[in-house]
Design goal:
856 residues, elongated, 5-stranded antiparallel beta sheet, mainly alpha, 4-stranded antiparallel beta sheet
Length: 856
């Protein structure tokens, strides 16, 4: 066929498709069902177009001559449909329900294949292999029609995730079974349960690994394409086809699974590595690609229906009914029988009965089943009778699911009430409506005053607001418990937090790795709030500031082998993460005070603000610990964070001036070059101030001032290292007076009996006077982070003094001077008066910082 006519025919079909969505809405039909009807009509009427004028006649002739093979369906349309669905999936939501999804995607396919194969074989004369092949073909579900209906009626997001997730993976299971059975039916393979299982596992897991590798490679390449949105979006399109083709033809694994996993990787990880402009356009671009592919695949598949169904006899019609009932029974068996059993395991999650009902009835079949049946008709090695039988029954069954299940699914959802708001959701809706309408009414009055609108027009607009407000009953707020309102408010703030993190990502203040971590943690925090309310949030915020596993491993590697690079990287990431979270937490508190109080009431808002304030305090405390532990490096990290923000603001300013034609492209390029040079220093990491040596620490202790080098060396050899974990007690009450402690790296918090707290960082010490038996105060000491401490025990200290008379005399002299300072401080604290020369700078507490001004 001439290439011009091919383009002409495709353009004509796409023009026809443009009018299908609004028409489907007018006639109240699912979009996929309407496409199937139009495709069948085209298949019937293409050869009856003698009446048409030349242009339409040529168009119909071109469409009629289209030769659509199974390869066209599987290689041209399927990768786009799979990638588009996977890209839009929330991976966190998917993993929450991975148990039910894999159950429906794998086990349900096997059960459907066996049930259909056994049933059809029992009521017909066709062989078991042909019947099993039919079962594998009809086992794959099509999410397009179902999800379209879900969106129209407002079905819950979790139900959509379950159905979409199932359809993403069950194509792979169906095609794997189909390939083995087709080879057996064609005489080139043998049927065995072990062979089928091994082949499936190899295809499924191999495809997953291949898709993950190619998806991560694409995410890496996004960094090279930043700033070129068209190139980034094109890379996602090529990834869909390359992951499918390379996996199928070069690696011998499932291209379906590879494409799905690649799409999930790009949807979850790639969004943090693309330029902000790209991600804003990516979803709309892929929605367009999916619309084209889905519309054309349904049209082309439906056009084949009249030819496949032309020679159908009553026995085949009966078999279609048998297959319809058998697949429905098999699906119900898995949904109502096996899913509850899965719920007893750690991999299962509870699925409600209404959800299971809709999942059972919503197992629509579509173009993939038709494509597989068409592929069977193209296999000359398969007997003609089996080819005709599989093609006719599959086609009739697909039409039955579309016209029976598809057209009744919407009423079923409404009858079960799945699309209805809960009592709490209705209350929140009414409150939000009241707050919004009240504000808008006031703004409308301001506009009327400013623009001198007539009182009559203003009153008419007022009547619209008044009628809407009158229909909302504020009394429903009282129906919600205080705990429910707090939980709803925490969920709102969690969603708001994700928006803020994504805005920070778009501003490029933090790099993509940190942004990826922040978004993931924010999503997990929302999950624990939904599941556990206020208690879940408190556990989640504690976990949010906890040291990561990677940080702990890096710290252990440094202590064991002296590796600093990894630890420096983890420190930088933690510091930037805490700074970003502190900024967001401060803004969330303001948001809660301004927006949550009118919506949920003052009592709930106050508790939400209080718990977020505690979270902010935890973040600030963690930051202070880092500042004490690594003061020089923390200073550079603050400079780097502020410098990145300033650099990005400057870049945005120049870009806006370019967009507004205030500067030329040449001036913009020169300004950007200066910008890079001006801020280059913030990317250069300084050396990490990890820890002080034993000799340096001993020199800082006033008790050991003036000692000889030999004495200092002898003391240093007695120091024993100890790693203190976050919040771990350093000296329990029973150990006071038995040890002196040096902070080599890290920080500790000293809680004194009078309620005051002193924080000591690297190079500071405490407990030195207790070694001389002069224990004045027994404070509680806890590590603020991962701290390396050097401990000097009383036994070792006394043995050293016994051997060295000069050291003993020196220590006793210094101890007397410091004990005199304690007596002066006690006198001052009891009377409140003393001579200026006697007044100590700080209250002594048997603790000693690096500076000798603090008496210990």
């Amino acid at each position: 066929m001439d290439i011009g006519f091919i383009v002409f025919g495709l353009a004509g079909l796409l023009t026809l498709v443009c009018f299908m969505p609004p028409l489907a809405g007018r006639v109240k039909l699912p979009y996929s069902v309407l496409l199937a009807i139009v495709g069948c009509l085209l298949g019937v009427g293409l050869h009856l177009h003698g009446w048409a004028p030349p242009v339409l006649g040529d168009l119909f002739d071109t469409i009629e001559r289209f030769e659509i093979s199974s390869e066209t369906f599987l290689m041209v349309f399927l990768p786009v449909l799979l990638f588009e669905t996977a890209l839009a999936m929330n991976v966190r939501r998917l993993m929450d329900d991975i148990g039910p999804i894999l159950m429906m995607a794998i086990v349900a396919v096997v059960v459907c294949t066996l049930v259909v194969g056994w049933t059809v074989n029992a009521v017909s004369s066709y062989g078991m292999v042909a019947c099993l092949l039919l079962g594998a073909i009809v086992a794959t579900t099509d999410p397009v029609a179902v999800v379209g209906i879900f969106r129209e009626v407002g079905a819950p997001k979790r139900l959509t995730t379950l159905v979409e997730g199932e359809a993403l993976f069950n194509d792979a299971a169906s095609i794997a079974l189909y390939s083995v059975l087709l080879a057996v039916l064609g005489g080139t393979g043998t049927l065995s349960a072990g062979g089928v299982f091994t082949d499936f596992i190899t295809h499924f897991i191999g495809g997953g690994v291949a898709g993950f590798v190619m998806g991560r490679a694409a995410c890496f390449l996004f960094a090279w394409l930043r700033g070129f949105p068209t190139a980034e979006i094109t890379l996602t399109l090529t990834l869909a086809y390359l992951s499918f083709f390379i996996s199928e033809h070069y690696l011998g694994v499932s291209g379906v699974v590879a494409t799905v996993i690649a799409g999930l990787v790009v949807g979850s990880t790639g969004r943090t590595r693309m330029s902000p402009v790209t991600f804003e356009h990516l979803a709309s671009s892929w929605e367009q690609f999916g619309f084209w592919a889905n519309s054309l695949i349904f049209i082309f598949a439906a056009m084949l229906v009249p030819k496949l169904m032309a020679a159908t006899d009553p026995q085949e019609l009966l078999l279609i009914v048998v297959v319809f009932v058998a697949t429905l029974f098999a699906r119900a068996l898995v949904v109502f029988g096996l899913l509850p059993l899965l719920g007893l395991t750690p991999f299962g999650t509870k699925v409600s009965t209404p959800y299971k009902t809709v999942m059972t009835w919503g197992g629509l079949r579509g173009a993939v089943s038709l494509a597989l049946a068409l592929a069977v008709t193209e296999q000359s090695a398969v007997p003609e009778a089996e080819r005709h039988f599989i093609a006719v029954v599959t086609t009739g069954f697909v039409l039955a699911t579309l016209f029976i299940n598809g057209m009744t699914l919407r009423p079923l959802i409404r009858m079960l009430g799945i699309n209805q708001l809960s009592s709490a959701e209705r209350t929140i809706r009414n409150q939000a409506l009241m707050v919004a309408l009240g504000d808008l009414q006031g703004k409308a009055d301001e506009i009327a005053d400013t623009d001198h609108i007539s009182p009559e027009a203003r009153d008419r607009i007022h009547s619209v607001f008044d009628a809407s407000l009158a229909s909302v009953h504020d009394g429903q707020v009282g129906q919600m418990s205080h705990e429910q309102r707090v939980q709803v408010g925490l969920v709102i703030l969690a969603q708001r937090e994700q928006e803020m993190f994504f805005d920070i990502l778009k501003a490029q203040i933090v790099d993509w790795r940190l942004a990826e971590s922040l978004l993931a943690r924010s999503e997990r925090l929302e999950d624990v709030v939904r599941n556990g309310g206020l208690e879940g949030f408190e556990k989640g915020m504690a976990a949010d500031v906890r040291y990561s596993r990677a940080f702990r491993i890096a710290l252990r590697m440094h202590y064991m082998f002296g590796f600093q690079g990894w630890l420096a990287y983890e420190l930088g990431k933690r510091f930037a993460s805490l700074l970003t979270k502190r900024s967001v937490a401060q803004r969330l508190i303001i948001f809660a005070q301004q927006q949550i109080a009118p919506l949920l009431g003052d009592a709930a808002a106050q508790q939400i603000v209080a718990v977020h304030q505690r979270r902010l305090d935890m973040i600030v405390h963690a930051l202070q610990s880092l500042n004490l532990q690594y003061p020089s490096y923390a200073l550079w990290l603050q400079e780097s964070y502020l410098g990145r923000t300033a650099r990005e603001l400057e870049r945005i300013r120049y870009h806006d001036m370019l967009e507004q034609f205030l500067i030329s492209g040449e001036v913009y390029a020169d300004l950007m070059s200066q910008l890079k040079g001006r801020w280059r220093h913030i990317d250069k990491h300084p050396p990490l101030d990890m820890e002080l040596s034993a000799a340096e620490l001993i020199k800082r202790v006033p008790l050991f001032e003036g000692l000889s080098a030999d004495s200092l060396h002898a003391i240093g050899r007695l120091l024993k290292p100890r790693l203190a974990l976050p919040d771990q007690p350093v000296l329990t009450r029973g150990r006071h007076g038995l040890e002196m402690c040096f902070v080599a790296s890290g920080a500790v918090s000293v809680h004194l009996p009078d309620g005051t707290t002193i924080e000591l960082g690297s190079g500071e010490f405490f407990g030195e006077l207790a070694l001389l038996g002069e224990q004045q105060i027994t404070p509680d000491v806890h590590s603020l982070g991962y701290s390396k401490l050097l401990m000097l025990s009383l036994r070792d200290f006394e043995a050293l003094l016994a051997r060295d008379a000069d050291l003993r005399e020196r220590v006793q002299l210094v101890a007397k001077q410091r004990l005199r300072a304690i007596e002066v401080w006690k006198q001052y604290s009891q009377t409140g008066t003393t001579t200026p020369s006697e007044k100590p700078a700080d209250p002594p507490a048997d603790i000693g910082p690096a500076a000798p001004s603090n008496v210990s």
